[in-house]
Amino acid sequence: MSQENKNALDIFGLSVNQSRLLFSIEKYLVGKDIENAKRDYDRKSEWLRKWEKSILDYLQTLDDSIDSLYGLFDIHEQIKEEKGKDEKMTWYYFIVMEAMLFHAYSPVDDDIKRYKGLKYKNQLDDLKELIKVDGLIESSFVDDAKEGYDLAVKKISGNNKRIFALLPTIALAIAVAALCSAFAGPIAIMLVGGNFAGLSGAALTSASLALLGGGAIAAGGAGMAGGTAVIVGGGALLGLATGGTASAAGLALLSAPEYVVFECAKIEIAIQEILIKSQNDIIGAKTVLERFQDSIVLLMNQIENMEKDKDKKSEAKKIKKSVSFMQKTANYCEDYIRMNS
After folding, report:
1. Which of 275, 309, 312, 257 is nearest to 12 (CA)?
2. 63: number of Cβ within 10 Å
3. What pLDDT sits at residue 113?
4. Which residues of the chain, if any, have pLDDT below 70?
5. For the chain, first and last CA: distance in Å?
6. Contact 160, 260 (CB under 8 A)
7. d(C-alpha 315, C-alpha 255), whole Å
8. Which pLDDT value is given to residue 60?
9. pLDDT value at residue 68
10. CA geometry: angle at 329 spanning 326 and 330, to 5°?
């Protein structure tokens, strides 16, 4: 399928094997940090075991033959194999972007403070060394994308220092922990897909946060079908409103505006750094922007209806804040596309 014929969500989708590659690269990076750790070795190792287990639990629901993530040699071999299937390499740019933004040691259960204070200082350098081996994209992409992402977060949030200081997964961890009891089914479908819809409590939270920490939301929750396993790059925001209304899970996601800022910043980088600068794909960028704008319009209509219900006014206020961040992002992206068309 050509990029021109893909819909907006397809652009942000990874196949099962591409998802496995993303999570394998993230595991490799954390492993590098643990190898070089001068302290907190045990806590970091514990975190990686928990995170990897939940990631594998999800991948095995898609392909029960998957019993491990790839080691370094197989990472490079699988990148070559995937390139043979799709030489445009949009998927690879998204993998590198999510590995760049991956927050190691983010919450993996409802004890969101357990791994607080653990840091990975050399993540960007380790990632650049990894991608140099394959020579498919310039390592400068990592620096440019990270700089653009940080700037986007500041612009979209209005330079809100509180938001900028938060890890995106911590922002949503709070929301997930608070909402799991009320929205167990919808949250499961939104964050980890229909295969995990029967989970509840701690198991549901762990599965959700493992994927979110890796930068992904299960495709089943974004209205996707076929071979797409996860949605990355902020693309889930494009699928929040379908059929004219947002689902309960979509509204739950939007009720964490701090997290939405980070996802909006990803969309901005996807359009600017990946689709336009790296791939000169103006059509793809316009397709993404149009879908994003359609979601905003649908959500604004739903907010108006919620505000008429006094029991939903508080929820509507949070969602309205999230949608305002989305609108800012759409405006920035529209200007950028216009200047580069």
Report:
1. 275
2. 12
3. 81
4. 1-6, 160-205, 219-226, 241-249
5. 23
6. no
7. 7
8. 84
9. 97
10. 85
- If one counts every other C-beta atom within 10 angstroms of the C-beta of residue 265, the result is 26
CA distance 15 to 29: 21
pLDDT of amino acid 108? 84
From the centroid of its chain, how far is CA 43? Answer: 25
Residues 338, 331: Cα–Cα separation, whole Å = 11
Q: Which residues pair with 230 in a beta bridge?
A: 14, 218
Phi-psi bin for 154: left (phi > 0), alpha (psi -120 to 50), beta?
Answer: alpha
Q: How far does Cα 247 stand from its chain's mean position? A: 19
State CA 25 to chain mean position distance: 15
pLDDT in tens, 12-22: 999 999 999 99
With beta carbons less than 8 A apart as the criterion, state whether 100 and 146 touch: yes
Which pLDDT score, from 0 to 100, does residue 83 have? Answer: 95
Token pair, residue 87, equals: 């030489």
Q: How many C-beta atoms surround the C-beta of residue 174 within 10 A?
A: 17
pLDDT reported for residue 4: 39
Instruction: Please give, one letter per residue, the 3-state secondary structure of the chain.
Output: CCHHHCCHHHHCEEEHHHHHHHHHHHHHHHHHHHHCCCCCHHHHHHHHHHHHHHHHHHHHHHCCCCCCCCCHHHHHHHHHHHHHHCCCCHHHHHHHHHHHHCCCCCCCCCCCCCCCCCCCCCHHHHHHHHHHHHCCCCCHHHHHHHHHHHHHHHHHHCCCHHHHHCCHHHHHHHHHHHHCCCCHHHHHHHHHCHHHCCCCHHHHHHHHHHHHHCCCEEHHHHCCCCCEEEECCCHHHHHCEECCEECHHHHHHHCCHHHHHHHHHHHHHHHHHHHHHHCCCHHHHHHHHHHHHHHHHHHHHHHHHHHCCHHHHHHHHHHHHHHHHHHHHHHHHHHHHHHHC
Of residues 251, 200, 243, 242, the one with CA closest to residue 222: 242
The pLDDT, as a whole number, for residue 191 is: 53
